[in-house]
Amino acid sequence: MKIQLIADNIDQLDLALDQLAIRDRNFDRFAYLLIDNVVELTLHSFAEDMKRVNHAWRNLKKPEHDPQAIEKGLSQRFGDKVRAAKILGLFDATSCETILKLHSYRNTAYHQGLRHESILHSLAIFYFRSACSLLRAYKPDRLTHGGNQTFSHRAMKYLGGLDTKNISPFKLIDAAYRRLDSVAASLPENLIGDLFADLSATIESVNTAIKYIAENEPQKGGRKDIVIYAQLWPFIYGPEGKQFARSKGYNRKSDGQYHKWFFHNFNWPCKSDPIDRWRKKAKLLEKEKDYRKALKKYCDFMEQHEKIRSQIISYAEGLEDHIQLQIDESREE
Fold first, then answer.
1. By the 8 A CB rule, do 196 and 119 touch?
2. 70-79, long-range: CB within 8 Å, 24+ apart, which pairs?
3. pLDDT at position 87, please?
4. Least crowded by CB within 10 Å, which of 20, 41, 121, 135?
5. Rounded CA gap, 106 and 30, in Å?
6. What pLDDT is attached to residue 113?
7. DSSP string for residues in 268-281
8. Dihedral sign, CA of 140, 141, 147, 150?
9. CA dihedral in degrees (65, 69, 75, 76; nearest 10)?
10. How many angstroms separate the CA atoms of 188 and 153, rounded?
11. Residues of the chain with pLDDT under 50
């Protein structure tokens, strides 16, 4: 591994620490990009090392490391790099999943920061510390020097000139990663609390939407019926809905009958009011002690229930627009 790359990574992480210490969402986003970049560069360098080892032992009938995994690790896709590193033994399946989930917030943190700003600071600190663990797990068998090698003042704070005679450069580098992690650990964060608060706010926004529909469109029935109707409207007139009706031999007679038939005959993904179940899931997250497990529970919930959440919110927004249109029209009369 090139010493220059190590120095540059340490420089970026030290700069990220400065951004995180400010505790401002815009600086948090910048820190997140720096951390993610260090992780990607490290994964790529690890794959290059594995390829070099295979090349050194190319006369063996079976290469020491999986060539297909190495090629994936050298690709341009971040996910392939992470999964390849797991196959090649850099970290376990849980760490692999955690890094993939943390990376998934990189672009949304930058382009849609308002959506994640309530969790971004704590999430960035967790990503920073996860990056430090990754850097310490990666142990290159040799260090190489570049022709125009220069260390920034940030890197020099941790590495000096790497010319000490009393300690190996590998130990000095590991100590730098430990120090970076130690500083990050001193920064205030509340990842599980922030994830729980954001998840709870998401759940309550859906609950508010259901209540709004129930109060303004009572003919649709109770909360269970409203949840089904939220799924019904975008589905029945689409290709999948029409195909389902044809497969059951249903001949559409009127919109009202069409809606009623679908309401009772289709196996809806969400068949009842989900709010109480979702609140229980949020409570389980709040009690979690392991950051990796807490992040998984949060991400799994957001991914698994994204469609029904957006359907209910869209239903409420459409109803609100319809009511407002009626109000505007009545004023013009």
1. no
2. 72/47, 73/43, 73/44, 73/46, 73/47, 74/44, 74/47, 74/48, 78/40, 78/43, 78/103, 79/103
3. 95
4. 41
5. 10
6. 44
7. -S--S--HHHHHHH
8. positive
9. -120
10. 26
11. 113-114
Note the pLDDT tens digit of each residue in 152-211. Answer: 889 988 888 666 566 788 888 999 999 999 999 999 999 999 999 999 999 999 999 999
- Token readout for 11 is 């420089």
pLDDT digits (tens, 9 = 90+) for 217-245: 877 789 999 999 999 887 887 888 888 88
The tokens describing 326, both together, are 């009626």
Enumerate the H helices of 288-305 as residue ranges: 291-304
Task: From 308, 307, 303, 306, select the one nearest 97 (Cα to Cα).
Answer: 303
Please state, in angstroms and rounded to a whole number, the distance separating the CA atoms of residues 182 and 169: 20
Rounded Cα–Cα distance for residues 44 and 63 (Å): 19
User: Residue 221: what residue type?
Assistant: G
What letter represents residue 190's amino acid? N
The tokens of 258 are what? 């069409």
Tokens 């990050």 correspond to what residue?
184
